[in-house]
Specification:
The complex is a heterodimer of chains A (254) and B (306). Chain A is α+β, with helices and mostly antiparallel strands and 254 residues long. Chain A folds into two domains: 197 residues, Immunoglobulin-like (Sandwich), CATH 2.60.40.3880; 42 residues. Helix content of chain A is 34%, strand content 40%. With 306 residues, chain B is mainly alpha-helical. Chain B has one domain. Chain B is 70% helix and 6% strand. In chain B, helix 2 packs antiparallel against helix 3 and helix 5 packs antiparallel against helix 10. Chain B starts with a strand and ends in a 5-residue tail after the last strand. The chains are: A alpha+beta (254), B mainly alpha (306). Chains A and B meet through strand 5, strand 6, helix 5, helix 6 and helix 7 of A and strand 1, helix 3, helix 8, helix 9 and strand 5 of B. Strand 5 of chain A pairs antiparallel with strand 5 of chain B.
């Protein structure tokens, strides 16, 4: 029975989506990490395409969620043992995005209901997955909370309410700030159109974050030719040491 | 000026790295220590991942030690023979240390052990040096030129395989230097340092080498041990960040030159008091970190890694 309802819901979705659709633009669909990379702002803008007049009822709200590649994370908790603070319990959070930013056009609980959040995994809490939580550890949810707290502190996770500007229920725009400590990978940008807390349409696109130039060259070399990379590092070190020594001697003799 | 580090995958201020490199370089030139025991914790502090900090620091120590040792070669204060003997032990020790390090890593407690190692060794060596060098300083102040030249004729002199070390003016068995090298090699691989802060006192107090040649010989030996460690890290963990190393060593090599000049102008006893004080300060800071409740009880890491 439940399955049937879900199947029906899924069938209904495209019909809903057909009424109002997202036409999206990004100021850039690739982020190049160069040597002097110090963060990037991505302008996300778009319009709502519809065949019919604007539906009556609650106004259209927009959510933009940009996520980095998800990876498992080990969270360790310190406890006081024998007078010193040591890592005791640890828990692996199955999947946590390396970067996650949500921008909304109104307070979060107004633009999205809990049920819809659960389905689309939009809020930070839902974007992190920890299914295999070890029940023997006290307060397993403290660990996921810690991931969010630490990464929010580092500027990697953020939820910014009221930062999406919506004009005439048709045009919307926001800017997503990417910090300088970015890791490589395929980032996803998801846009949700909601009315009365329910998602009426969604759209997903990819943002490619890549190291380029010298960064790319050094990274590849360290993985593909580790021996030459190591020798190169040593050669640079020796040359710098010799160079400084000689320069100083000449300086002192003159 | 922000610089993105390709291996560490973080963005840091280039001038901050120049500054850190320069400061640690001066100390390294003055005292003949690689400076790793200062630099590695500083790199943790500015947000470099520990694995990258340890590996890159080894590479940077190669540069500052090489720069420093050239100055000592010109002053003929390097005992090449003793350095080579120490090196033999050092390389074996470093290889053993890496094996031990990986074993501890699999147990998940490597951070704690590294910190405890720091606190214990820095504490013991710092206190011993501080007391000893203060006593020596007091004696020279009194004008008692009759420094106890008489060397201990203890167990060290009873060992076989004796060798003459002309530059140091010693005729001792090769077993103690090899053992010192081995021990320091193990510690340097675990703690991510060159090991000068252990090597220097061991050479003075255990082997009885004259203070004059200790610094140069220690630097000479450190170059090879850290070069070996760099290669091990580069090929097994891929954690050497050349970009970070270059930024650090630009400041480091210049600092080391300045430090060597300062060191040559200061009396050996005062130099030792200062080094001892420095070691104790770092030890105290690390001990406080273990004893006081941290602001954040949780820490994140890649599974299986740090």
């Amino acid at each position: 029975m439940l399955r049937l309802i879900i199947a029906l819901c899924l069938l209904c979705l495209p019909v809903q989506a057909a009424e109002e659709q997202v036409v999206l633009g990004l100021s850039q669909d690739r982020v190049s990490i160069t040597a002097n990379f110090d963060g990037s702002d991505i302008l996300v803008f778009g319009a709502v395409k519809r065949e019919a007049p604007i539906p009556q009822g609650p106004p259209l709200e927009v959510i933009v969620a940009v996520a980095g590649p998800s990876e498992p994370v080990t969270v360790r908790r310190k406890e006081k043992k024998f007078g010193i603070w040591v890592n005791t319990d640890s828990l692996v959070v199955d999947l946590a995005p390396s970067f996650y930013a949500v921008a909304t056009s109104a307070p979060f609980h107004e633009v999205l209901t809990n049920v819809e959040d659960l389905r689309h995994k939009v809020s930070i809490e839902r974007a992190i997955r920890s299914v295999g939580a070890d029940m023997s550890i006290q307060g397993a949810q403290d660990f996921t909370a810690a991931v969010i707290r630490i990464r929010e502190h580092e500027g990697l996770y953020s939820i910014r309410e009221n930062t999406v500007a919506v004009d005439e229920q048709t045009l919307f725009r926001t800017s997503i700030k990417m910090p300088s400590d970015l890791t490589e990978g395929n980032y996803s940008a998801r846009i949700f159109l909601t009315r009365g807390g329910n998602v009426v349409s969604s759209f997903e696109t990819a943002i490619n974050v890549r190291k380029v130039g010298l960064e790319r060259f050094l990274y590849n070399m360290s993985r593909e030719q580790p021996i030459w990379y190591g020798l190169m590092s040593l050669a640079i070190a020796i040359a710098a040491g010799w160079g400084a020594s000689t320069a100083f001697r000449l300086l002192r003799e003159n | 000026m922000q610089i993105y580090l390709p291996i560490a995958e973080v963005s840091v201020n280039a001038f901050l790295l120049f500054g850190l490199g320069g400061m640690v370089g001066i100390l390294s030139g003055m005292f003949g220590v690689g400076g790793g025991f200062l630099m590695t914790p500083l790199l943790f502090f500015i947000g470099i991942p520990p694995a990258v900090a340890v590996a890159t620091e080894a590479n940077q120590i190669v540069a500052s030690s090489f720069s420093g040792v050239l100055a000592h070669f010109r002053r003929r204060t390097v005992d090449l023979k003793m350095g080579t003997v120490l090196l033999v032990g050092g390389l074996i020790g470093a290889a053993l240390g890496v094996v031990l390090f990986n074993y501890l890593k699999s147990l998940g407690q490597v951070d704690l052990l590294v910190k405890l190692c720091y606190v214990v060794f820095l504490g013991v060596i710092g206190s011993l040096m501080f007391i000893e060098s203060l006593n020596a300083l007091r004696k020279t102040r009194k004008g008692g030129a009759s420094a106890p030249k008489r060397r201990q004729r203890g167990w060290i002199h009873a060992m076989p395989f004796k060798m003459r070390f002309r530059t140091s003016g010693l005729y001792i068995s090769v077993i103690p230097p090899v053992m010192v090298g081995l021990f320091v090699g193990i510690l340097s691989a675990i703690m991510g340092v060159g090991g000068g802060f252990i090597m220097v006192p061991a050479m003075i107090y255990l082997l009885g080498m004259p203070t004059k040649v200790v610094v140069g010989t220690s630097l000479f030996q450190i170059i090879f041990v850290t070069a070996f460690t760099t290669m091990l890290h580069a090929t097994t963990n891929y954690t050497v960040d050349v970009m970070l190393a270059v930024l650090l060593l630009v400041g480091g090599v210049v600092g080391a030159q300045i430090g060597t000049v300062i060191g040559a102008r200061m009396p050996a006893e005062q130099l030792r008091v200062l080094l001892a004080a420095l070691v104790l300060v770092v030890c105290g800071k690390l001990a406080l970190d273990l004893l006081l409740q941290p602001a954040e009880l949780f820490s994140l890491g890649a599974p299986g890694g740090h």
